[in-house]
From TrEMBL:
Residues 22-216 form the GH16 domain. The keyword Transcription regulation does not apply. The active site is at 102 (nucleophile), 106 (nucleophile). SUPFAM superfamilies: Concanavalin A-like lectins/glucanases (SSF49899). Glycans are attached at residue 110. Residues 1-25 form the signal peptide. This is Xyloglucan endotransglucosylase/hydrolase. Contains at least one intrachain disulfide bond essential for its enzymatic activity. It comes from Buddleja alternifolia.
Length: 285
C-alpha cells in the first residue's frame, strides 16, 4: 500500500508538469493575428501550426496580439526548402514609430544545396546597422529548429536550438542607446527580396518553384513580460525564470564556437565600413 501510494504521489506532479508544458505551447489562434497575404498565411491543426507562403503576387505575414517588454521568446521554424533563392523569412521583435527598437532574425534563402544566411540585427531608437550573419550547422529546411531571443535590461541573446549565436550587451554606459523602454510585438513575414538577398541580388527568385512555404510551431513566451495598458505582467519580485539569464561558461564556449566557425559577417570587424573607427558598442560585444 505504502509503495503504491508513493508512486501515485510521484505521478501527480509528473502529470502536472507534462500537462502544464503541453498547455504552455502557444496557440497561434490565441496569440497571433495574420496581418497580410490574402489567405497565404494559414493557422492549422487547431492553432498548433502556422504556415506562410509566397508567390509571384504576394508574400504573407503575422504578428503577435501581445506586446512584450523583456522576455525569453522561443519559436520553431522550418524554412522554405529547395530552391529558396531570393526569398526572405523575417522573424523579429519590433516596437513602432520613427525611433523604434527592433531585434531581428532574417533567413536569406539560397539555391538548392547552398546554405541559408541567418542575418541578425539590433535597432535602438531607430538606429540599426549592427548586422551579424551566420551560416547554420544544419539544414534549416529539413526540420523544425528553435530560434530564441532573450531580451532583458542587460543583454540580448540570440540562440539557435539553445546554442547562443550572438550576445548584444547594453552599451548605455558608452553613450549608446539600448532597447529597454518600448514594448515590442513579434512579427514574421515571408517575402521576395531578390533585389538584394541572395549573393547581393545576383540570384533571382525562381517563380516556377512557387508557392514557397515556411512553417512555425511551438511558440513559447512563458518567460516573457506582457505589456498592457502601461504595465507589465512581470514584477521585480516575480521575475520569470530565465529572464535574468546570462551566459554561463559552457554557453560562452558554444557562442565562441559558433562565432569562430559559422559567423560570416560582423559589422564590428568591417573596417572598410567604419574607416573612422568601430561603433562604441563593439568594444564590449
Ligand atoms: C548561398 O550560397 C553561397 C555559396 O555557397 C554562399 O556564399 C552564400 O552565403 C549563400 N547564401 C546567400 C543568401 O547567398
Amino acid at each position: 500500500m505504502a509503495s503504491k501510494f508513493s508512486i501515485v504521489a510521484l505521478m501527480i506532479p509528473l502529470f502536472m508538469i507534462i500537462f502544464m508544458r503541453a498547455a504552455s505551447a502557444g496557440n497561434f489562434n490565441r496569440e497571433f493575428d495574420i496581418t497580410w497575404g490574402d489567405g497565404r498565411a494559414k493557422i492549422l491543426n487547431n492553432g498548433e501550426l502556422l504556415t506562410l507562403s509566397l508567390d509571384k503576387t504576394s508574400g504573407s505575414g503575422f504578428q503577435s496580439k501581445n506586446e512584450y517588454l523583456f522576455g525569453k521568446i522561443d519559436m520553431q521554424l522550418k524554412l522554405v526548402p529547395g530552391n529558396s533563392a531570393g526569398t526572405v523569412t523575417a522573424y523579429y521583435l519590433s516596437s513602432q514609430g520613427q525611433t523604434h527598437d527592433e531585434i531581428d532574425f532574417e533567413f536569406l534563402g539560397n539555391l538548392s544545396g547552398d546554405p541559408y544566411i541567418l542575418h541578425t540585427n539590433v535597432f535602438s531608437q531607430g538606429k540599426g546597422n549592427r548586422e551579424q550573419q551566420f551560416h547554420l550547422w544544419f539544414d534549416p529546411t529539413a526540420d523544425f529548429h528553435t530560434y530564441s531571443i532573450l531580451w532583458n535590461p542587460q543583454r540580448i541573446i540570440f540562440s539557435v536550438d539553445g546554442t547562443p549565436i550572438r550576445e548584444f550587451k547594453n552599451p548605455e554606459s558608452l553613450g549608446v542607446a539600448y532597447p529597454k523602454s518600448q514594448p515590442m510585438r513579434i512579427y514574421s513575414s515571408l517575402w521576395n527580396a531578390d533585389d538584394w538577398a541572395t549573393r547581393g541580388g545576383l540570384v533571382k527568385t525562381d517563380w516556377s518553384q512557387a508557392p514557397f512555404t515556411a512553417s512555425y510551431r511551438n511558440f513559447n513566451a512563458d518567460n516573457a513580460c506582457v505589456w498592457s495598458s502601461g504595465s507589465s505582467s512581470c514584477s521585480s519580485s516575480n521575475p520569470p525564470a530565465a529572464l535574468g539569464e546570462e551566459l554561463d561558461t559552457t554557453s560562452q564556449d558554444r557562442l565562441k564556437w559558433v562565432q569562430k566557425n559559422y559567423m560570416i559577417y560582423n559589422y564590428c570587424s568591417d573596417s572598410k565600413r567604419f574607416p573612422q573607427g568601430f561603433p562604441p558598442e563593439c568594444s564590449i560585444n
